[in-house]
Design goal:
The structure is a single chain. This protein is an alpha/beta fold. It is 30% helix and 23% strand. The chain is built from eleven helices and 19 strands. A nine-stranded mixed sheet has the order 11-14-17-16-15-18-10-1-19. Strands 8-7-6-5-4-3-2-9 form an eight-stranded parallel sheet. Strand 16 and strand 17 form a beta hairpin. Helix 7 packs across helix 8. The longest helix is centred in the middle third of the chain and has 21 residues. It starts with 7 loop residues before the first strand and ends in a 5-residue tail after the last strand.
Amino acid sequence: MRTGSMRVADVSVSAIRKNVRRLRELTGGGNVIVVVKACGYGHDAAIAARAAMAGGATMIATADLEESLKLRESGIDAPLLCWLHGPRVDFAAAIEQSIDVGVSHLSQLEALAQAARATGKRATLQFKIDTGLSRNGAAREEWEALFARGAELERDGLVRVRGIFSHLANAGEDADLAQGARFDEAIAALRAAGSDPEMIHLAASAATFTRPELYYNTVRVGMAAYGLSPLAGKNSAQLGLVPAMTLRSEVVALRGVPAGTGVSYGFNHVCEVATTLALVPVGYADGMPRALNGAGAWVTIAGERCPIVGRIGMDQFIVDVGPIAGRIDIGAPVILFGDPERGFPSIDIWAGLMRTINYEILVGIGPRVLRVAVDEEEL
């Protein structure tokens, strides 16, 4: 039982639903696969999966099989796909739980076929193709043998080839289109081998907003489903998205201090005037980036911007609340980030201060932060 939680991530179910609907409309009502890897990009995978399916997602995807199996344990019965496998992965578990397996190499295909024989059930796969990102996925020289063997196993009733997919490097329009051309070659080769893929996907969140020529019949989105912009220079509202997470805490101590008071480890902040300091119980163990030390970050308390001062600790940080000291008390809500359209700090502010991407901050939110599904009743 969790009681008196001091660190909470409110996850807006209605926001995720609205974002998925927006993506479906943008792509003309085609298939939308929503990725919930890495704890649903920090939002909680089960909460995100249920919301995405309610918004019209066709399929839910994870990186590895363990993540997909955890979703099944949580009661998620939606179509699932996973694609990143180690040499000791148990594909029998994927077959038993009706999880699509992304296959990148002939050895994986043979392992999947062996698992199908052992379970007595047909496996469902989607071929993962490398078109230029140079990560996992079958290289061009593997395509002929891989697709031929897949078609043979399909004729034998051991596998079903449901789809083919790849991943863009987001290295610019020319690079994206070059990858699209290579992907077209792979699709043609797969069909020539005798398989007819039902799902064809290359575009992720960024390309869903910039490359309609790369939609095929399916897009596979992560960050956009959670309402954050995948594009530099464009915010969520400009893309018609609603940020789903509000990270909040509360004031657990207030301290009036005189001018010249040092704050937190190393005294890298010294109060220039007498003020009031508020203690907030969120630290770098919870995903509050230590790199925000002295960076100019702020939180919202009583509707006002309050600067973070001093070094961020493992469990807590300090805020200067001098201008509003008379209006707050212990227990006052603190919003670390959320939807800027509601007046909250944007996670993109933190990302900019740290010279990183919003993805990194979200997935770094720690397990002590309680994820709570909110506004489930809204449509």
